[in-house]
């Protein structure tokens, strides 16, 4: 049963994750996972799985806000979600094979890599690869598989893969890519959380609480995103997750805890 302290922590985390999600078009997992680990003191695997529950709720609110502004490509979102359903199965299998320390360090390195890519500006510039029709749909399916794998394994919605792919391959602008990513993220994160429930990893109560609190402010983040320059958004995102990654890796290396896979 949840304690009063857990409720306060969850309700406090939710708005931060929600604004981050709406602002950068991601589900909020890149903030929720470290928050569950560092502030809520959860073990790595439950933290990653519980993050997916929160991501599903928050992404729903963010996607609705972008959709209201006409910034969701529903066809691409459907293809991404279909691929994500398959990828979540692979991600769940990988999660079973690693220890908590390995998972945390891998997640930190992943964040640093994404930050470097976004700071380089490569993720904001379309290279005109749009091929149209069936070819684009197949590419989105493949991207969805990657996003679904990342979702179930890392506890994130997969936006850090989908947004750059939509910009590069689909020729989307930053805002349309963010809205489409959030729409696809809802089923991807839900399927991932449901899959990990078989292993008893997610704390659905905590995830829903953080998700609801975050959903209330996700539209605020989405509103701000549509007002800001795309390059500025990318730089802010990169700087934020760099700080999170460094703190996460440092805390894990400083206090190693043996854990069975």
Put the structure in a nutshell.
The protein has helices at about 5-25, 30-40, 45-70, 75-95, 100-120, 135-155, 160-170, 175-195, 205-225, 230-255. With about 260 residues, it is mainly α. The protein has one domain (about 10-255).
Describe this structure in words.
The chain has helices at 4-24, 29-38, 44-68, 74-97, 100-120, 133-154, 159-168, 174-197, 204-227, 230-254. With 261 residues, the chain is an all-alpha fold. The protein has one domain.
Q: How do the helices and strands line up, and which of them pair or pack?
A:
Elements: H1 4-24, H2 29-38, H3 44-68, H4 74-97, H5 100-120, H6 133-154, H7 159-168, H8 174-197, H9 204-227, H10 230-254
Helix pairs in contact: 1-2, 1-3, 1-9, 2-3, 2-10, 3-8, 3-9, 4-6, 4-8, 5-10, 6-7, 6-8, 7-8
3D shape: globular
Question: Could you give a short account of the major beta sheet?
Answer: none
Which regions are unreliable across 5 or more consecutive residues at pLDDT < 50?
A: none
Total number of strands = 0
Please report the distance between the alpha carbons of the first and last residues.
Answer: 26 Å
SS strand fraction: under 5%
Descriptive labels:
single chain; 261 residues; mainly alpha; 10 helices; 0% strand
